Protein backbone atom coordinates (compact mmCIF):
# COMPACT_ATOMS: atom_id res chain seq x y z
CA UNK A 1 0.00 0.00 0.00
CA UNK A 2 1.49 3.42 -0.95
CA UNK A 3 2.72 5.61 1.85
CA UNK A 4 0.44 8.43 0.67
CA UNK A 5 -2.55 6.34 1.69
CA UNK A 6 -1.30 4.95 5.00
CA UNK A 7 0.73 8.03 5.99
CA UNK A 8 -2.20 10.15 7.30
CA UNK A 9 -3.60 7.18 9.21
CA UNK A 10 -0.22 6.47 10.83
CA UNK A 11 0.12 10.15 11.76
CA UNK A 12 -3.35 10.20 13.35
CA UNK A 13 -2.62 7.00 15.29
CA UNK A 14 0.70 8.39 16.57
CA UNK A 15 -0.99 11.64 17.54
CA UNK A 16 -3.64 9.85 19.58
CA UNK A 17 -0.97 7.57 21.08
CA UNK A 18 0.98 10.59 22.28
CA UNK A 19 -2.20 12.17 23.62
CA UNK A 20 -3.03 8.95 25.51
CA UNK A 21 0.45 8.85 27.03
CA UNK A 22 0.10 12.50 28.05
CA UNK A 23 -3.09 11.54 29.92
CA UNK A 24 -1.52 8.47 31.55
CA UNK A 25 1.72 10.10 32.76
CA UNK A 26 0.00 12.31 35.40
CA UNK A 27 -1.75 9.25 36.86
CA UNK A 28 1.56 7.40 37.05
CA UNK A 29 3.19 10.45 38.65
CA UNK A 30 0.45 10.73 41.27
CA UNK A 31 0.75 7.03 42.09
CA UNK A 32 4.54 7.31 42.30
CA UNK A 33 4.48 10.36 44.57
CA UNK A 34 2.00 8.66 46.89
CA UNK A 35 4.57 5.87 47.44
CA UNK A 36 7.48 8.28 47.97
CA UNK A 37 8.76 9.63 51.26
CA UNK A 38 8.31 13.31 51.99
CA UNK A 39 12.06 13.82 52.44
CA UNK A 40 12.73 12.28 49.02
CA UNK A 41 10.14 14.58 47.41
CA UNK A 42 11.74 17.64 49.05
CA UNK A 43 15.22 16.54 47.95
CA UNK A 44 14.63 15.19 44.44
CA UNK A 45 11.22 16.56 43.44
CA UNK A 46 8.54 14.60 41.60
CA UNK A 47 9.44 11.38 39.77
CA UNK A 48 7.64 8.91 37.56
CA UNK A 49 9.20 6.12 39.62
CA UNK A 50 9.91 6.51 43.36
CA UNK A 51 13.54 6.27 44.44
CA UNK A 52 12.43 4.04 47.29
CA UNK A 53 8.94 2.82 48.11
CA UNK A 54 7.56 4.40 51.25
CA UNK A 55 4.09 3.73 52.70
CA UNK A 56 4.07 6.45 55.35
CA UNK A 57 1.38 8.46 53.52
CA UNK A 58 -1.00 5.50 53.40
CA UNK A 59 -0.11 4.59 56.98
CA UNK A 60 -1.10 8.09 58.07
CA UNK A 61 -4.37 8.08 56.14
CA UNK A 62 -5.31 4.54 57.21
CA UNK A 63 -4.28 5.04 60.83
CA UNK A 64 -7.93 4.49 61.79
CA UNK A 65 -9.12 2.03 59.13
CA UNK A 66 -12.66 1.66 60.47
CA UNK A 67 -13.16 5.42 60.23
CA UNK A 68 -12.08 5.41 56.58
CA UNK A 69 -14.21 2.33 55.89
CA UNK A 70 -17.28 4.01 57.37
CA UNK A 71 -16.61 7.12 55.26
CA UNK A 72 -16.39 4.88 52.18
CA UNK A 73 -19.74 3.32 53.07
CA UNK A 74 -21.39 6.73 53.45
CA UNK A 75 -19.99 7.95 50.13
CA UNK A 76 -21.01 4.76 48.34
CA UNK A 77 -24.56 4.92 49.69
CA UNK A 78 -24.98 8.62 48.94
CA UNK A 79 -23.48 8.25 45.45
CA UNK A 80 -25.50 5.18 44.46
CA UNK A 81 -28.85 6.08 45.99
CA UNK A 82 -28.49 9.76 45.08
CA UNK A 83 -27.62 8.97 41.46
CA UNK A 84 -30.58 6.61 41.03
CA UNK A 85 -33.04 9.01 42.68
CA UNK A 86 -31.67 12.03 40.85
CA UNK A 87 -31.78 10.21 37.53
CA UNK A 88 -35.46 9.34 37.98
CA UNK A 89 -36.36 12.92 38.92
CA UNK A 90 -34.22 14.43 36.17
CA UNK A 91 -35.57 12.05 33.53
CA UNK A 92 -39.16 12.73 34.58
CA UNK A 93 -38.77 16.50 34.31
CA UNK A 94 -36.80 16.23 31.07
CA UNK A 95 -39.46 13.99 29.54
CA UNK A 96 -42.20 16.49 30.37
CA UNK A 97 -40.17 19.34 28.85
CA UNK A 98 -39.50 17.30 25.70
CA UNK A 99 -43.22 16.76 25.03
CA UNK A 100 -44.64 19.16 22.46
CA UNK A 101 -48.12 18.97 24.02
CA UNK A 102 -46.98 20.04 27.49
CA UNK A 103 -48.60 23.44 28.11
CA UNK A 104 -46.16 24.65 30.78
CA UNK A 105 -43.09 23.69 28.74
CA UNK A 106 -41.81 27.22 28.10
CA UNK A 107 -42.49 28.52 31.62
CA UNK A 108 -40.80 25.56 33.29
CA UNK A 109 -37.83 25.80 30.91
CA UNK A 110 -37.41 29.47 31.80
CA UNK A 111 -37.63 28.61 35.51
CA UNK A 112 -34.87 26.01 35.15
CA UNK A 113 -32.68 28.37 33.15
CA UNK A 114 -33.23 31.16 35.68
CA UNK A 115 -32.11 28.95 38.57
CA UNK A 116 -28.92 28.18 36.64
CA UNK A 117 -28.05 31.88 36.69
CA UNK A 118 -29.33 32.84 40.15
CA UNK A 119 -29.78 30.92 43.38
CA UNK A 120 -31.15 31.67 46.81
CA UNK A 121 -27.74 32.23 48.41
CA UNK A 122 -25.89 30.40 51.15
CA UNK A 123 -27.63 31.92 54.19
CA UNK A 124 -31.26 31.35 53.01
CA UNK A 125 -30.35 27.83 51.89
CA UNK A 126 -28.76 27.06 55.25
CA UNK A 127 -31.77 28.41 57.13
CA UNK A 128 -34.16 26.40 54.96
CA UNK A 129 -32.29 23.11 55.41
CA UNK A 130 -31.35 23.56 59.06
CA UNK A 131 -34.27 25.44 60.63
CA UNK A 132 -37.30 24.50 58.53
CA UNK A 133 -36.59 21.13 56.92
CA UNK A 134 -34.45 19.90 59.87
CA UNK A 135 -32.20 17.86 57.60
CA UNK A 136 -28.92 18.62 59.37
CA UNK A 137 -27.03 15.56 60.60
CA UNK A 138 -29.10 13.25 58.41
CA UNK A 139 -28.04 11.29 55.35
CA UNK A 140 -30.71 13.05 53.28
CA UNK A 141 -28.97 16.40 53.48
CA UNK A 142 -26.21 14.89 51.31
CA UNK A 143 -28.72 13.67 48.69
CA UNK A 144 -31.65 16.09 48.33
CA UNK A 145 -29.78 19.30 47.31
CA UNK A 146 -28.51 17.62 44.11
CA UNK A 147 -31.69 15.73 43.33
CA UNK A 148 -32.67 17.97 40.38
CA UNK A 149 -29.83 19.90 38.70
CA UNK A 150 -31.14 22.23 35.95
CA UNK A 151 -28.14 21.72 33.66
CA UNK A 152 -28.56 17.93 33.70
CA UNK A 153 -32.29 18.30 33.05
CA UNK A 154 -31.64 20.44 29.96
CA UNK A 155 -29.04 17.98 28.64
CA UNK A 156 -31.46 15.06 29.00
CA UNK A 157 -34.35 17.08 27.58
CA UNK A 158 -32.32 17.84 24.47
CA UNK A 159 -31.66 14.14 23.99
CA UNK A 160 -35.29 13.13 24.51
CA UNK A 161 -36.41 15.68 21.95
CA UNK A 162 -34.75 13.50 19.29
CA UNK A 163 -37.19 10.66 20.02
CA UNK A 164 -39.99 10.91 17.41
CA UNK A 165 -43.27 12.06 18.88
CA UNK A 166 -45.07 9.60 16.60
CA UNK A 167 -43.80 6.75 18.78
CA UNK A 168 -45.49 8.29 21.82
CA UNK A 169 -48.69 8.90 19.89
CA UNK A 170 -48.84 5.31 18.65
CA UNK A 171 -48.34 4.02 22.19
CA UNK A 172 -51.14 6.23 23.47
CA UNK A 173 -53.45 4.98 20.71
CA UNK A 174 -52.70 1.42 21.85
CA UNK A 175 -53.83 2.36 25.36
CA UNK A 176 -50.45 2.69 27.05
CA UNK A 177 -50.37 4.93 30.13
CA UNK A 178 -47.90 7.78 30.59
CA UNK A 179 -45.93 5.78 33.15
CA UNK A 180 -45.66 2.80 30.81
CA UNK A 181 -44.54 5.02 27.93
CA UNK A 182 -41.96 6.67 30.15
CA UNK A 183 -40.45 3.52 31.70
CA UNK A 184 -40.77 1.06 28.80
CA UNK A 185 -40.34 3.30 25.74
CA UNK A 186 -38.60 6.58 26.59
CA UNK A 187 -35.98 5.40 29.10
CA UNK A 188 -34.66 2.52 26.93
CA UNK A 189 -34.39 4.83 23.92
CA UNK A 190 -32.58 7.48 26.00
CA UNK A 191 -29.80 5.22 27.30
CA UNK A 192 -26.89 7.36 25.99
CA UNK A 193 -28.32 10.52 27.53
CA UNK A 194 -29.15 8.73 30.78
CA UNK A 195 -25.63 7.30 30.99
CA UNK A 196 -24.09 10.74 30.46
CA UNK A 197 -26.24 12.40 33.12
CA UNK A 198 -25.75 9.44 35.47
CA UNK A 199 -21.97 9.79 35.21
CA UNK A 200 -22.08 13.53 35.88
CA UNK A 201 -24.43 13.02 38.81
CA UNK A 202 -22.33 10.21 40.25
CA UNK A 203 -19.21 12.38 40.10
CA UNK A 204 -21.07 15.25 41.76
CA UNK A 205 -22.22 13.11 44.67
CA UNK A 206 -18.90 11.33 45.05
CA UNK A 207 -16.73 14.46 45.00
CA UNK A 208 -18.94 16.61 47.20
CA UNK A 209 -17.58 17.69 50.58
CA UNK A 210 -19.28 21.10 50.84
CA UNK A 211 -22.64 19.82 52.11
CA UNK A 212 -21.02 17.74 54.83
CA UNK A 213 -18.93 20.73 55.89
CA UNK A 214 -22.09 22.80 56.38
CA UNK A 215 -24.59 20.31 57.75
CA UNK A 216 -22.85 17.20 59.14
CA UNK A 217 -21.44 16.96 62.67
CA UNK A 218 -21.93 13.24 63.36
CA UNK A 219 -18.78 11.24 62.67
CA UNK A 220 -20.86 8.32 61.45
CA UNK A 221 -22.24 10.45 58.57
CA UNK A 222 -18.98 11.98 57.36
CA UNK A 223 -18.32 11.02 53.70
CA UNK A 224 -14.91 10.15 52.32
CA UNK A 225 -14.15 13.44 50.58
CA UNK A 226 -14.81 15.53 53.68
CA UNK A 227 -12.74 13.19 55.85
CA UNK A 228 -9.79 13.45 53.47
CA UNK A 229 -10.28 17.22 53.39
CA UNK A 230 -10.02 17.36 57.19
CA UNK A 231 -6.93 15.15 57.18
CA UNK A 232 -5.20 17.42 54.67
CA UNK A 233 -6.07 20.49 56.73
CA UNK A 234 -4.62 18.82 59.83
CA UNK A 235 -1.37 18.03 58.01
CA UNK A 236 -1.12 21.61 56.72
CA UNK A 237 -1.78 23.03 60.17
CA UNK A 238 0.82 20.80 61.84
CA UNK A 239 3.39 21.58 59.15
CA UNK A 240 2.90 25.35 59.42
CA UNK A 241 2.98 25.30 63.23
CA UNK A 242 6.08 23.09 63.53
CA UNK A 243 8.05 25.98 65.07
CA UNK A 244 5.70 26.11 68.05
CA UNK A 245 5.95 22.38 68.77
CA UNK A 246 8.14 20.88 71.49
CA UNK A 247 11.84 20.53 70.50
CA UNK A 248 11.57 16.75 70.09
CA UNK A 249 8.84 17.04 67.43
CA UNK A 250 10.22 19.88 65.33
CA UNK A 251 12.32 17.63 63.08
CA UNK A 252 9.43 15.26 62.29
CA UNK A 253 8.54 15.45 58.60
CA UNK A 254 4.86 14.84 58.01
CA UNK A 255 3.73 13.27 54.71
CA UNK A 256 2.30 16.39 53.08
CA UNK A 257 2.68 16.02 49.28
CA UNK A 258 2.73 12.22 49.38
CA UNK A 259 -0.40 12.19 51.55
CA UNK A 260 -2.12 14.59 49.15
CA UNK A 261 -1.45 12.23 46.25
CA UNK A 262 -2.45 9.17 48.28
CA UNK A 263 -5.76 10.87 49.07
CA UNK A 264 -6.24 11.55 45.37
CA UNK A 265 -5.71 7.84 44.63
CA UNK A 266 -8.20 6.78 47.31
CA UNK A 267 -10.77 9.36 46.20
CA UNK A 268 -10.48 8.86 42.43
CA UNK A 269 -9.89 5.11 42.35
CA UNK A 270 -13.54 3.99 42.45
CA UNK A 271 -14.54 6.48 39.76
CA UNK A 272 -11.75 5.25 37.47
CA UNK A 273 -13.26 1.78 37.73
CA UNK A 274 -16.79 3.02 37.02
CA UNK A 275 -16.03 5.21 34.00
CA UNK A 276 -15.38 2.37 31.46
CA UNK A 277 -18.96 1.14 31.91
CA UNK A 278 -20.30 4.54 30.80
CA UNK A 279 -17.74 5.20 28.07
CA UNK A 280 -19.64 3.79 25.08
CA UNK A 281 -22.66 6.02 25.85
CA UNK A 282 -20.81 9.06 27.15
CA UNK A 283 -19.62 10.77 23.95
CA UNK A 284 -22.87 10.24 22.07
CA UNK A 285 -25.08 11.45 24.91
CA UNK A 286 -22.95 14.51 25.64
CA UNK A 287 -22.69 15.51 21.98
CA UNK A 288 -26.43 15.30 21.41
CA UNK A 289 -27.15 17.28 24.59
CA UNK A 290 -24.73 19.98 23.48
CA UNK A 291 -25.94 20.61 19.94
CA UNK A 292 -29.65 19.85 20.11
CA UNK A 293 -31.66 22.78 21.51
From TrEMBL:
List, in alphabetical order, the GO biological process terms annotated in this UniProt record. Answer: transmembrane transport
Q: How does it sit in the membrane?
A: Multi-pass membrane protein
Residues annotated as transmembrane: 12-33, 75-96, 108-127, 139-160, 181-206, 259-278
What name is this protein filed under? Answer: Carbohydrate ABC transporter permease
Keywords for the protein's UniProt record, in alphabetical order: Cell membrane, Membrane, Transmembrane, Transmembrane helix, Transport
Q: Origin, by domain of life?
A: Bacteria
User: Organism, per UniProt?
Assistant: Paenibacillus contaminans
**Location within or outside the cell:** Cell membrane
What are the residue boundaries of the ABC transmembrane type-1 domain, all occurrences included?
A: 72-278
- What is one term from the GO cellular component aspect held by the record? plasma membrane
Q: Which Gene3D superfamilies match?
A: MetI-like
Matching CDD domains, A to Z?
Answer: TM_PBP2
Per the similarity annotation, which family is this?
Belongs to the binding-protein-dependent transport system permease family.
Amino acid sequence: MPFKKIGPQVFINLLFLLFSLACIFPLIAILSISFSSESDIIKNGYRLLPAMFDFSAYAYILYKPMQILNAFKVSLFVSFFGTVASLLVTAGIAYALSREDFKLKNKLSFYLFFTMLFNGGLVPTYMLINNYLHLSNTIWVLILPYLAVPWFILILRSFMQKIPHSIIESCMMDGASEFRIFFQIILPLAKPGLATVALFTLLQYWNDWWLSLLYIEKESLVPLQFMLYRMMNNITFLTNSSNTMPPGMRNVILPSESARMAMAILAAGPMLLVFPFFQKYFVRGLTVGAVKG
